[in-house]
Amino acid sequence: MEWLKEIFGIEYTDVNQFLVRMGTNLLICVVILVVGFYLAKFATKAIRKVLQKSNTDEGLVTFISSFSSMVMKILVIITAITQLGIEMTSFVALLGAAGLAIGMAFSGTLSNFAGGVMILVLKPFKVGDLILTQGEQGVVKEIQIFNTYLHTGDNKVIILPNGAVANGNITNFTKADVRRVDWTISISYGDDAVKAKQTLLKYAIEDQRILNDPETFVGIMTMANSSVDLIMRAWVKTDDYWPVYFEMNERVYAQFPEEGFSFPFPQMDVHLKKEVNV
User: Fold this and answer.
1) Residue 159 sits in a domain of what CATH number?
2) What pTM, to 2 d.p., does this model score?
3) What would the pLDDT profile of 192-202 be if each residue is shown by its tens digit?
4) What CATH number did the domain enclosing 247 receive?
5) Sheet holding 130-133, edge to edge
6) Based on the structure, what is the number of domains in the chain?
7) Dist. CA 11–CA 5, nearest whole Å
8) Which domain holds residue 123?
9) CB neighbour list of residue 113: distance below 8 Å, 6 or more residues apart
10) Over the stretch 42-95, which tens digit does the pLDDT of each residue have?
11) Could you tell me if 166 and 182 lie in one domain?
């Protein structure tokens, strides 16, 4: 290996020691990454279990878990880089110099992080709530650092950025304990509207899920071209909203004809006049 000394001015033993040292450091670096990521995953699960046992809000559980996982993985990566002999002080200084550019590049990400914090602090919704936001409706399954996960009724997963969610309109269908159910029932002209109102009120009284306070309201909403439209408004517990809504529709459809009412069809009266030639 005399050519190494002649060309580069270094001894073979120095090259050998350097390669051994770098190989050892690289092996240790890989071990740190593998073991560190495993421990980070294990610690994240432990944190999640502790928070769940303490009855912490599920949204806060997912947020803290994902944030803790990210921080621990970053620390593992920094430790592994340090093991390779790279001075982290210089690395941090480089990051500081590029901080403005990085901040501008990740402004959306930082906005989503801030939005996640706002959601957890202000609590416009929580895990398990049915919400409408950003034109999407679904049940909140997770509130992570940067995104909120919704599951739709047909089991699609919608991922929404927290920044847009926190700064946009949010309709929470399950936050209140009670909700009002509205029906529009049409009867034909000539049917007894008073009897129809009394019949609907009787249906409401017989359904134990419909609350007595506030009282159920039934009135004539519109006298349309082909029908008289009645509006019925009743209050129920939030969990009973859809069962009451669908079952009342079924009962009206099945029993209204038996009560002497008919469901109108769109119709038009045409009057023909005979012209008389003089």
Assistant:
1) 2.30.30.60
2) 0.59
3) 999 999 999 99
4) 3.30.70.100
5) 157-161, 147-151, 136-143, 130-133, 170-172
6) 3
7) 6
8) 109-172
9) 145, 146, 162
10) 888 888 888 777 777 777 777 778 878 888 888 888 788 777 766 656 556 655
11) no
